[in-house]
């Protein structure tokens, strides 16, 4: 730590991002990030990646050697590694930096950043649609040619907590999500269940019952339950939102005839010191880490559960 950092007052935790996170498990940034910069990055991504059937292995190629794990971007195979300077419109945006400092402390760190693509129904080969029908997590990474696994491709993902990928880890990180173009109802917008973080970590697939046009009853299978409100995150290019790693969210398959590209960051709290996340987590009535986060996968990572809550919605 530099002397200047040592002498600087601790980040102000009295910030709307902190109060929103305590109340709802998320904070929607009031102003979009620079839409022109979002569009430039989108064009650069599109120039690198055509979303069509050519993205996928054939059924025979897949069956010759099915691999379900290690199919997401990782260091050395991440499309964003080519675009570090183009990400300044996110990483250096004053509203992002001040919210993150308040939530995670001055010394917050990027744990992961990647491009997420919502693949449109028309681009998924018929054999693959048949295979993935009804599964709760349709990360298409296993079926994508290895050279294209520098992006995460989804054909919808049921309500989940981002803690799902981090068993035994404390919920000391947040997800920042940025749309690179306008996202409407047909573009696989994020569905967020406000207040769901308050029950802490629970096992995926979650105990959810739809109780109204935008309300759910969410049980924690420990005797606790809450009524939570569904918020559909449609928004313009540059729209940004941050949520807690116990906040339930998901997407339906992309119904538009074009893909949805977004940025997904995980940001972790600074080690030591105070941060708004401590106040958020102190208000959580449930475990902040889980020994097991999901029961939907076999040992090899293939899906053994065929049930999907979010896709049953109209
Ligand atoms: O973009 C999507 O469709 C879902 C993204 C998501 O929830 C995730 O990557 O954790
Ligand atoms: Fe997620």
Q: In short, what is this structure?
A:
The protein is of the alpha+beta class.
List descriptors.
314 residues; alpha+beta; twelve-stranded mixed sheet; 12 strands; globular; binds 2-oxoglutaric acid; binds fe (ii) ion
What does this protein look like?
- By secondary structure, the chain is of the alpha+beta class.
- The chain has helices at 3-7, 16-24, 35-48, 59-64, 88-91, 94-104, 126-132, 276-282, and strands spanning 26-28, 109-118, 137-139, 152-160, 173-179, 190-194, 207-212, 215-219, 225-233, 240-244, 249-251, 260-268.
- Strands 1, 2, 3, 4, 5, 6, 7, 8, 9, 10, 11 and 12 form a 12-stranded mixed sheet that branches.
- Helix 2 (16-24) packs parallel to helix 8 (276-282).
- The longest helix has 14 residues, at 35-48.
- The radius of gyration is 19 Å and the shape is globular.
- It starts with a helix and ends in a 32-residue tail after the last helix.
- The model has no long low-confidence stretch (mean pLDDT 95).
- Bound molecules: 2-oxoglutaric acid (AKG) and fe (ii) ion.
